[in-house]
Amino acid sequence: MTLQEWTAAVQRAVGIDTEVDIHLVLDLARDAAHAVERPAAPLTTFLLGYAAALRGGSATDVADVADVITRMCAEHSGAEG
């Protein structure tokens, strides 16, 4: 099963019909893992989804929240470097 197939299957199973930007989520997970520590990746992506859902759950909401968290990761990395 490919990542795209898995994502589509999970979406069907849990009733999500919003398009998922897989690369955005994976990039954010990578940034969190490198800026903080590895366990930050799944926690951060969970928080991304939760915050985006509270804002309405659109692709724009996801992108806006991801931008905020990406900036946080960059600032955190810069603070330790």
Key descriptive features of the protein:
81 residues, mainly alpha, 4 helices, 0% strand, globular
Structural description of this entry:
The chain has helices at 3-14, 22-35, 40-55, 59-80. It is mainly α and 81 residues long. It has one domain (19-80). Helix 2 crosses helix 3 and helix 3 runs antiparallel to helix 4 (59-80).
Write the layout of secondary structure elements.
Blueprint lengths: L2 H12 L7 H14 L4 H16 L3 H22 L1
Helix pairs in contact: 2-3, 2-4, 3-4
Describe the structure in brief.
The chain has 81 residues and is mainly alpha-helical.
**Biggest β-sheet strands, sense, barrel:** none
User: Could you spell the SSE succession in H and E letters?
Assistant: HHHH
Structural class: mainly alpha
The end-to-end span amounts to 39 Å
Task: Write down how many β-strands occur, each being a DSSP E stretch of 2 or more residues.
Answer: 0
**Low-pLDDT windows of residues:** none
What characteristic shape results from the CA principal axes?
globular
Mean pLDDT: 94
From the alpha carbons, calculate the radius of gyration and give it in angstroms: 13 Å
